[in-house]
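Sample pair:
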Amino acid sequence: MNSKIVEGAVAQFSKLPGIGKKTALRLVLHLLKVDEQNVYDFSKALLKLKTDLHFCSVCHNISDETICSICKDTGRNHEMVCIVEDLRDVIAIENTNQFRGVYHVLGGLISPVDGIGPEDLNIESLFVRFQRNEIKELIFALAATMEGDTTTFYITRRLNGSDIKASTIARGISVGGELEYADEITLGRSILGRVPYKL
């Protein structure tokens, strides 16, 4: 390639997940064709992701403000909290239109093999919510993997002796499957058909 500027842009695009060199080049060549205002708007939107986006101080979901729109919604059941691994899971469950509670985003799963312990996740803030007596029911909507089960076990063990109701989503989600890849009907039925989790 005879342009270091184009090479630099291709190198940046190819750092994105799922984007190879050919796709990156196609995206860069497309941006060369559009007018300058479109490119400016595109770059401004990307910068806003890093400068203006917040993580909700209550549930750790993404938000334009300090507290997300879901936590602010008085029409939702704030005593029912769905525990998820990351933001993609919130989006997947919201798309089912079957859940009217609120969320708690852990930001990952406990995985000793990968050096991820409870202290690396948003778990302590969940227990702060317990101490405020905000929560009556927990729904664990974590991946049906060893890491997901370990995380569920850790949290429920710490709840031992409390009167909080705990359940997991029905295993209509395949074992080893990730929530973001489940179809909306299966995921919706899993939420509705959740089963008790014994403490």
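The longest strand covers residues 77-84.
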